[in-house]
Structure prediction request, 610 residues.
Amino acid sequence: MSIASDLPSPRTEPHNGAQTLGSMILAAARRGSSVAMSFPADGHTVFLSYAELGVIAGEIARGLIALGVRSGEHVAILCSTRAEWALTDYGCLCAGTVVVPIYHTNSPEECAYVLGHSESKVVFCEDAAQAAKVAQVRGELKQLEHVVVIDGEAPDAITLLELRRRGRDIPRERVYARVDEVDPDDVATLVYTSGTTGPPKGCLLTHASVLFTVRAYAERLQLDDSHSLYQFLPLAHVLARVAQFVILEVGAQVTFWGGEPKLIVQELALAEPTHFPAVPRIYEKIHATVIGRVEDGSALQRMLFKRALTQARAVRRRREQGGSPGPIELARHWLADILVLSKVRALFGPRLRVALVGAAPVAGELLEFFDACGVKVLEGYGLTESCAAATLNTPSELRLGSVGRPLPGTEVRIASDGEILLRGPNIFTGYYKNPGATREAIDADGWLATGDLGMITDEGYLLVTGRKKDLIITSSGKNITPVNIENALRDTRWISEAVVYGDRRPYLVALVTLDRDEQVKLAERLGIMPTMDVIAHDERVHATLQQDLDSVNARLARIEQIKRFAVLDHELSQDTGELTSTLKVKRAVVYERYAEVFDGLYREQTAGAR
Prediction:
């Protein structure tokens, strides 16, 4: 089955006439005193205007020109998400260079691979610690000429302030000339996939592709200069950068996080964004926080919460079916909203219009929970190869459990084996230095093979059912998609991550980790030491988790049910290579690293091996 969006393509030339990202940045700077971004610094909040953004980006661009960096050369950014990441990105694009993002969690060896493969001439490092990674491998990097440190100083590097100072000696006209030299079909950024298997591949994304995606998103979500965004996603991921460019396109404001993951929920309410893009793990965390507070409350609080959710879901179903709730039903819903549901919405701040989720599968029950509370969480779908976007739910066209309909001007098709295929102006031009992989990914007609499995509803909504490579085939020959089972397990209070295993085995087992914040409460409830080595092996903990597992199993077909599980005494981590930057499990890594644990679940028959 194939579907194409029945909506008109986003305008190719907006009012400012920008056809490249550099020209969009220069046009945005003309908005003058309007606030472009805010960020924490030295205990207070800094507000940066669009005019100031333009000055800083221009100085960085001129600084690169002063270093001798030519248009089209590659410049890398190794930094966590902060305002300076975006400003450096804008400066590089205004200098006509190709931006190569590197995840700040990468090891020195991983940094060396990206810097070497991309042949980057300059790398911007966040601080001395990141510069030290580059220093360890600099002898391998023949093309690398300059290291620029954004915050502080480092040996054999110049500071960002020094780069900007050098740039002031270069005429401003040089920046305009550089921007004019860039063609819409030129490569804007070289983004290396964080992939769950194999070495990363460099995706070539053009100015035209990125701008098309930015404008499609802005139009589908009806965004304008009243839009505000709370940004914590890694800017090395294309989804976060597209969101950042949407800000510039519509003249809105972005608030950067303070850098502490534990404070995201707290900062979110204080930032008061209208839109909040996040990965599923953040919504799982918010959900776990709410459920934890309810379960730790009184019996009356638990009863009120349950009734409020039931009432909200009943009203939603009535409206979905085209009916109107009666006055008594509306009154009950109003009371439930005041007493319970509004408190959940308050976690997102008072101005939230839309929450967005992508980059990984999300449990349908989680979306239903937030929807009942009055928080619209819109699921979308895309890959790095499609500029992070392909389909999207919108407030007016929302089907929970789906990833929405195709963006304007794009197409989605399901291949004979169930694989999702994409085509449109948002699709990348290929993998850098890898024509063989490019031919495997894109066919002669321009269809991108995503590696994901899915189906299309009669209304034209795409459902993603799993990954081709993740399919588990049991010893009885049954095909099982583990991701839906894992989502259901993560949706419980205590479990932070779950990895299902069972290829060529008679039944499924799972490896789970516990939520760092909730595990202390669990230990207190059970009267045991709150240390992970104790919690992971305590029979009372296993019995509590078994109750949650039984509840999940009750919703699954018999062949999909988890028969036994093991609890890790630590969380999976990006630093150890078990999670991608968007917190997706690297399944092959986990399977290999914990092979003995999985094998033990099939050997052991005692109660402790559940």
